[in-house]
Amino acid sequence: MSDQAQHAEAAGPLGGIFDGFEAYRRIESADLERAVRSSVVALDTNVLLDLYRVLKATRDDNLKALWKIADRLFMPAQVQREFWRNRDQVILDVIARDSAKELQQAQQTARLALGAWGRQSMSQAEATVLQGELDSAFKEVRKKLQAGGEGLKLNAALKDVELDPVLKDLGGIFAGRVGHPFSDERLTELVAEGRRRFARLIPPGYLDAEKANQVEEGTGDFLLWEQLIAYARVDGRDILFVTRDVKADWWRLGQLGAPLGPRPELVDEMWDRAGVRLLLAEPAQLWEALLEAYPDLPINQSTVDDTERLSEDADVEGSTPWTMGMWETLLSRLEDSAYPKRVAVLRAAARDPEGFIPREQVYKICGYDPAKRLLVGFTRPVIGATRELVASGELPAGLEPALRAHYLRPGKAEGFLVPRSVVEIHTDQIRGVSTES
């Protein structure tokens, strides 16, 4: 036998390019569907708190879905701690903002209807006067609502947890499914270990290192991670962790912050220490996978869309108007990042008098097949590009959302809206008026 043959025999059969690098495989919808059927499902704190933020119909569907997989849910003690730490403030925020946000959406719908009707039956001057009266009326109503109101009747939930519609279900769903907290001694050790990991940028949690004013000294995500590993080591099933926290210390990110999959280091660490596979998913992906896995569940596409809308809204609130220079800076970044279809949609919406582009026109511009392609996440690259440009100082903070899904009712978006300031600068440009003042 030759030396080469002897070496090959001693080394054993050769492997493939993904051996040891399985974390780089693309996670398909079928993987998530299998995971919701057989894996342990752990929800991050933000997923639980979002139950207060979504529409009532969405919340009811989400809770029914969680009941369906309750025997495979696991709540790390750190999630429990953070849920109770943040619950009151989330409820207060919902009470303060929900009515105003819904009215803002209603105002946009009314403007669209009035604009379409006005173009057929009155002059532009008359339509402009009516638009002004409509805006003033909505502004006055919002002012009075913000001065006081019951929101989603959650004031009572703050005073008495027995009246909390979310806790009423979560108490049963997670009965016997919550992990034990670390002892004081072990917590001290792990906080120190977490800080050492952060110094070397070892995920997860190092992007929260500045939160040193908390008991965990910014190591909350690392403590949650340790609790997931400890549970997986005993349980032996794969872990599906669902989070709205799309950051680089959990996810491998692509262009404009698009999540590609879990950080390879996390996949490897979970396998090395617990012998199970780790999958990450965003909330909308979870509900979509449950919809596919359990057709009898009352989840529909509107539930997925509402959840996705919430995740998109999280980073785009602002009121600073756009200038033409700012707008072109955004479009250039999207072009450079290989999103020309988004640019075409943005330009088309900006040319509309109301800044609106219907769903059907988006499909036509992008060449999508409506039977095969949803528009869930369509605004994400625009949000990501805006965020990157703000971080680099090329755009100011607090800009109005550059593109927002528009809903007339729960369900699929009717279309998309660009800010009023964008419509106005395009109108001024056509008229030859400077837009850089």
Distance between the termini: 83 Å
- Number of helices, where a helix is a run of at least 4 consecutive DSSP H or I residues: 18
Overall 3D form: globular
Percentage of β-strand residues:
5-15%
**Which sheet architecture does the biggest sheet show?**
3 strands, parallel
Low-confidence stretches: 146-151
Give the helices and strands as they follow along the chain.
Answer: HHEHHHHHHHHEEEHEHHHHEHHEEH
* Strand line-up in the sheet with most strands: 1-2-5
Quote the average pLDDT.
Answer: 83
Quickly count the domains: 2
**In total, how many beta strands?**
8
**Multimeric status of the protein:** single chain
The secondary-structure class comes to mainly alpha
- Give the proportion of residues in helices: 55-70%
Radius of gyration: 25 Å
What report would you give on this structure?
- With 437 residues, the chain is mainly alpha-helical.
- A hairpin with an 8-residue loop joins β7 and β8.
- The chain is globular and about 75 Å long.
- The relative contact order is 0.11.
- Helices cover 56% and strands 6% of the residues.
- A three-stranded parallel beta sheet has the order 1-2-5.
- It has helices at 3-11, 29-38, 45-49, 56-68, 77-121, 124-147, 155-159, 165-173, 184-199, 220-235, 264-274, 283-293, 301-313, 324-336, 340-351, 359-366, 380-391, 420-431, and strands spanning 40-43, 239-242, 251-253, 259-262, 278-281, 356-358, 404-406, 415-417.
- It starts with a helix and ends in a 6-residue tail after the last helix.
